Amino acid sequence: MTEGRPIPLEALETPALVVDIERLERNLERWQRYCHQTGLANRPHVKTHKSVEIARRQVELGARGITCQKLGEAEVMVDGGLDDVLIPYNLVAAGKLERLSSLLARARVAVTVDDERLLAGLAGPRVRPAGSSTTWRSPSTRPW
Known about the structure:
mainly alpha
């Protein structure tokens, strides 16, 4: 849209993202309704849309939180006001652990590991904000 007026499709420069907002809303509502009816805790993955606005709408409709594959995605989503994030990817490098610590001071963030040797890095001072505690769960407890 330009100044509130729709742009004809043939006038769009490509690449361009074009979203049918009404269809998007119907799909978000339908999926969340299904999750409610079946008892599923919806934690959608933002890699499908990479949009703070869409993620916010998913949470407004009842999603438990969001899932981000990368730390940078999680930072963008938390900056956008989302406060419950799962990162199902190993965070190992010191710089990433420091960024995770900063994120933990601003939001509820859960991370996963696929090797128990990685837990030591997550329990270290680079990750824990002052006054925080860490809870480790086995995969069978499904915190999400």
